[in-house]
Design goal:
By secondary structure, the protein is mainly alpha-helical. The chain is built from four helices and no strands. The chain has one domain (2-81). The longest helix is centred in the C-terminal third of the chain and has 38 residues, at 44-81.
């Protein structure tokens, strides 16, 4: 991405729901798909594999965030009890 402006142009909802790493990986993949030389573009199989890897990574990331929220919520409720 030129001038490191990726996060300036990505929709706020995407920034909220996805990890920065996942967004960067996706953007790099999209950039490779736009290569003028067709031989340098990824195959559909490569695109599918990379998208599946991003999806799996994002699912793990979101599950981790949910777990962290639960822990903070439990800790917060325990503080009020004391």
């Amino acid at each position: 991405m030129q001038e490191d402006r990726l996060f300036d142009i990505v929709d706020a909802r995407i920034l909220k729901e996805g990890s920065k790493t996942g967004i960067e990986v996706f953007a790099k993949l999209a950039g490779r798909c736009l290569n003028f030389n067709g031989r340098n573009r990824p195959t559909m199989r490569e695109v599918t594999t990379e998208l599946e890897a991003i999806q799996k990574s994002e699912t793990t990331y979101n599950e981790s965030l949910e777990q962290q929220k639960k822990v903070v919520s439990i800790q917060h409720s325990q503080v009020r009890i004391c």
